Amino acid sequence: MELAVTALGAAGDGLARMPDGGPCFVPRSLPGETLAVRDLGKRGGGRLAEPEAVLRASPDRVEPPCPHFAACGGCALQHWADVPYAEWKHGKLVEALSRAGFAEVPVAPLVRTPPRARRRADLALRRRPDGRVALGFHARVGRTVLDLQTCEVLDPRLVSLFGPLRDLLRGLPALRREGSAVVNLLDTGPDLLLRTDGALDAPARAKLAAFAAAHGVPRVAWALGDRAPEVAAQHGPAAIRFGGAAVHPPPGAFLQASPAGEAATREAVLAGLPERLPGRAAIAELHAGVGTLSFALAERARVNAYEASVGAVGALEAAAGRAGARIKAVRRDLVRQPLLPAELKPFAAVVLDPPFGGAPEQVPLLARGRVPRVVYVSCNPAALAQDAKTLKGAGYRVVSAVPVDQFLWSPHLEAVVAFAL
């Protein structure tokens, strides 16, 4: 059937109407286009259709730079010209704040991050019947693992490991059917965490050590399924620097997607703080991770950094001790045990960088605690809109809003929004 696309949805798919008037999501399409599509079935409250031919193309359609784009589930918008793409990304933050009740807030221009700069990859692994291993991201439809040969988003130093890693895994009995490989590009080199569905024996550990030595991988960690990882091979320090501090993160630690995105986020957070903080002021940093923002914040005031991960807290605490930074790392699951209004009272500002679902447990308590300044780092405009609405109801105003295109060619958007009473 033929469908006319009228808009772009939150996930980056084109929106069209079925003959019965119901909504239909069409990946890899653009507003104003007419396409021949094949109905794939239900998706949420509508239908999902596979485009088979573009009958009338948008003038904003461009050739995708990656040969995997049509099948890969990683990128959604490589076929869109840069200017309208950037306007759409900027508009996602404008729309989120408007839904929260901040309709007239000026939003800063979109901060861009370049292609081939992402330093973290979470790769799926699947052994084929012939013994070879597919390594890459999941396909756009279904659970197929797309065997990647290249990637226009990832740093080339990560892509260069694809081939050697496939060769290693083919001869690794610990990978029986499926697993994953998380690679973080640290300042000391690629840091690899393998998760497999079989046990790792002594010969396999020797293979991992040889792989690490041959390919400049300072540390290879391994875990059986979802169990806690252990270090299987290490040839040197696995470290990343935040300011003047060297942090040794645990295997598979969360990092900002790219150095440029990290720098933009950090600058926006610092700019969102009050210009002057009292000499004995303290900042509460919630969901601090391994200290991406902590050390910069500690240049402005004392920091209580709260984080649920034992490994992340340990890494941050050790790095702060070595650097003499004004950081107190505190292990706390903020979803189950958010900070209460009385606990928030000593802080002049709160910086929070919650997970994708936002901070619905914490934000109402921030509002009740009347924290003078809240700087919210978001990776999900929908969750931001909900939490910002709570702050709006408590009398907060937006003093700055910065969108950061941390996740190039995806529908996701990083944003830093500062709220004040």
Automatic annotation (TrEMBL):
Keyword Oxidoreductase among UniProt keywords: no
Keywords per UniProt: 4Fe-4S, Iron, Iron-sulfur, Metal-binding, Methyltransferase, S-adenosyl-L-methionine, Transferase
Catalytic residue positions: 379
GO biological process, one term: methylation
InterPro entries: NA-bd_OB-fold, SAM-dependent_MTases_sf, U5_MeTrfase_fam
List of residues binding S-adenosyl-L-methionine: 256, 307, 353
Pfam families: tRNA_U5-meth_tr (PF05958)
GO MF term (any one): methyltransferase activity
Matching PANTHER family: 23S RRNA (URACIL(1939)-C(5))-METHYLTRANSFERASE RLMD, RNA M5U METHYLTRANSFERASE
Family membership: Belongs to the class I-like SAM-binding methyltransferase superfamily. RNA M5U methyltransferase family.
Protein's UniProt name: Class I SAM-dependent RNA methyltransferase
Lineage, top ranks: Bacteria, Pseudomonadati, Pseudomonadota, Alphaproteobacteria, Acetobacterales
